């Protein structure tokens, strides 16, 4: 029997609720695949600030490094918004990405046909959307030097430095081209090369790497145009690769094509099979503890973990198909329901998915 070690970091707000539901799904996979998942728990974000005095305790780093994969719930919330910069939950997120070498963030955006009418865009625009945003995760402006100071003329001034090195761009480019090879062999690289020197380096490395993947049809697109095209004609995209901040923004925009940010999973990968898996939604403190959160994004994140870290592709596909089946039946949590009075809760949605998954 194969066994896998998973570091479980429930996080803040609705994080613990949706992670609990994903673990129920993994329990079924254990039986179906004759595998064993071993869990170790850690804290990250706001709860870690409260309990440990730091957004990223060393214990969490160590259990994550010792694991085969990490399952993370949502992190943060307004409770900690006024904290000094080193005691913000987001520092924990950036820190664990760096500590674990998680340089490639995969954010799939899929609009199920039965969900197309939930989107704020026209059904014919979003129905059938199936794209992947590949975001560089450990470089760029988020990790550059940050300064606030008084300039010579007495004005308060702030600077954030955007730095990319050739090897950082090369490795995310190769990851994106490899994903494109497994999909439809189409890739769009997004930058701001008409203005930024870092983007001009990005573009030159993309063109160099592309020579090793002659089957992939690739093109460049400026980030402002890409933002427009995602809402104008999203089905033109298959794989999008871009730098850290652009990817952060564009992947959230792409998420709304699906009707709800509560539907989307993500994977953050290092070299090899190791990865951290989390929903892209926030902590939703207004509904935390009320049993209303949509668990689908976290359940689909667990499916990505099975696929990318454990090589259990068929199990991952069964979970994804079970989710789609439940949605096709019209089952909805309140964030995706047209009639909120008929919406079901967090545990009930998981029960519906488990029913399809087990055939019971």
TrEMBL record:
Entry cofactors: Mn(2+); Mg(2+)
Principal subcellular localisation of the protein: cytoplasm
Cofactor annotation comment: Binds 1 Mg(2+) or Mn(2+) ion per subunit.
Organism listed in the record: Ammoniphilus resinae
Family matches, as Gene3D superfamilies: Isopropylmalate Dehydrogenase
Annotated NCBIfam families: leuB
Places the protein is found: Cytoplasm
Name of the protein in question: 3-isopropylmalate dehydrogenase
